[in-house]
Amino acid sequence: MSDKSGHITMLHGAGGTVMHDLVKNYIVRYLGGIAKVEVPLEAMDDAAVVNDIVFKSDSHAVKPIFFPGGDIGRLSISGTVNDISMLGAQPIALASGFILEEGLAIADLERILSSMRQTCLEAEVGIVTGDTKVVEKGMLGGCVMNVSGMGKRTLALERNLEVVKKYRKEFAARWTLDSNLRVGDKIILSGTIGDHGLAVLSAQEGLKFGSEIRSDVKPLNKLIQRLLGEVGGIVTMKDPTRGGLADCLHEYTEKSKTGILIQENKVPIRSDVRAACEMLGLDPLEVGNEGKVVIGAVAEKAEELLTLLQGTVEGKNAQIIGEVTSEFSGVGMQTVVGGKRVIARPVGDPVPRIC
């Protein structure tokens, strides 16, 4: 999908239907089907699986490169670590590609590198190789970055799959893939939504919302390994980045060929984020996040997973927000006034260049 003149638009990089159409109709059409691997490009999951190694590459062009609660360095490490983690793997090595703009202050580069180092230490994974390029002034807004990484299977993932098979005898998946949901599974959200997108928007536009909204950007690999190993029962995981929670849930329903019904009063949203979205005419369900995970789990383990989550810093605001249904396809919401409404797949994230 392109605009009427046949050119790429900002919507093509914003998650939602426009970006997914670009990936499926062009990138996958030309590049898919070549590599015969366990989880290939055409599966369009958060990462691929090659010879039991999870592999991911992620690029970042956030604007501005520093924002409340984070920066492009922390974002780039967390983004790749989290995408590897969503398949149930533990990241083991990263590679970084820096494209720097002429005129970038060395002090700013050092600030980014220091942030990357700190995030690597939090995730307990290091950068082992990479590349650096410099382009002319005025091309990038400071810099853009790519971080690629590898992850491996863990005992925690194996234990998780054993727990799933206790309650779902036919379960055969070896990874926590988008297509694994079945009717009756519960949907768990690890915390408040919209924080990252609103934090970046405030930095882009110089907006003040009465309180400082800070990005939630963080690596989630340690939390996820705890959930897998200590409780189990997880069939799928996804971080609701571009396009937010709405786009994430639609990816689940399309790949699993199910419906999802969420409860409006269970979706955690900070009051200042909600107020800012109302003021700006944004839907918080469509705003991107960088430190949250949406979990699909067998119903029998959902409450136990929630208890563990709520006992952590990362998951203290977690909630079971809905369940998988066969009553309809797509995503619906039970509203606080008692009715139901359709949650449409967003065209794209309403906040540009959030990652």
Keywords:
alpha+beta; 2 domains; 60s Ribosomal Protein L30, Chain: A; Phosphoribosyl-aminoimidazole Synthetase, Chain A, domain 2; 5-stranded mixed β-sheet; 355 residues; 7-stranded mixed β-sheet
Could you explain the architecture of this structure?
- The strands form three sheets. A seven-stranded mixed sheet has the order 9-11-8-12-10-13-14. Strands 1-2-7-5-6 form a five-stranded mixed sheet, with helices on one face.
- The chain has helices spanning 16-31, 72-85, 106-123, 155-167, 195-205, 221-231, 244-256, 271-280, 299-310; strands spanning 48-50, 53-60, 66-67, 70-71, 90-101, 127-135, 143-152, 186-189, 234-238, 259-263, 294-297, 319-325, 330-334, 340-342.
- It is 33% helix and 22% strand.
- β5 (90-101), α3 (106-123) and β6 (127-135) form a beta-alpha-beta unit.
- The protein is an alpha+beta fold.
- It has two domains: 10-152, PurM-like, N-terminal domain (60s Ribosomal Protein L30, Chain: A), CATH 3.30.1330; 155-342, PurM-like C-terminal domain (Phosphoribosyl-aminoimidazole Synthetase, Chain A, domain 2).
- It has nine helices and 14 strands.
